[in-house]
TrEMBL record:
Keyword Transmembrane helix: yes
The name this protein goes by in its record: DUF1700 domain-containing protein
Keyword Membrane in annotation: yes
Keywords (A to Z) from UniProt: Membrane, Transmembrane, Transmembrane helix
Membrane spanning residue stretches: 163-180, 186-203, 215-235, 247-268
Amino acid sequence: MIERADQLVLDYVSKAADAAHGVLRQDHRLDFVQRLRARIESERSGSEDPKVVARVLATFGDPAALVEREARRLSSDGEVPRIQAEPEVRPAESDTAVFPRVVDDVPPGVARGMREARARLAGRTERGLPFAGLRRAVMAGANPMATGGRDARTVVKGHPREVLAIGLLLLAALLVPMSLPSVAIFQVPVIVWAAGAATVLTSDSWSFRDRMIGIGAPMFGYGVGGVVIGALRVGGESGFSAFLAQFYAVSGIMFMIFTGLGVVWLAYRLWDLS
């Protein structure tokens, strides 16, 4: 979490520094980058949440636009904001023009340190983490700025209550095939489902509609699904006892199926809203 948040800040400041090359003088550029980094840290307020950091960076806008604004400010103050480019040089025996070149005056040691820091923050710190290779492969095509620093791990870290609710609903479904003794008059899967439903209802990450779908799907499957499938399985048989036998035979399975559908919906909405 901390490494990814710092990586977002480092990438943004690096883009601003790159945009300032050839536009601002060295002393102006270093001062601009330092002030920009300090301002970001101030707005960030010590947060290590990549989503919060991404939103803070979004308020600053395009780094190139910040550089242009700084150049205009320096010009209005009477200072010379631009680096003097080397004069145009033509080869002695060629008509091919050589474009003016701006010398990158970042010290080699600083540039090397920035590259090493990016490499460590981007992936080397994840060595030894479970499924780190799979995680890097899944996120290989993702731009941290475009995704807001979001992946499965950051969503789980940022929404512990919602993850607990999803886990309880899944556990309730998995307990259905087990012949567990009842607690008073309540079956154990029903108790676990009720705990998961209560946790879902206390969450403010999902909308009311999403919460109703998530906790209502298992009951819908158990009740409506059990009645419909049970009636179809009765077929030509008559009698309420035959219907009840078929209902109890399929209602648990329908509860598991619709719990899975509700969990998929909650997980999808949690990812979409993160």
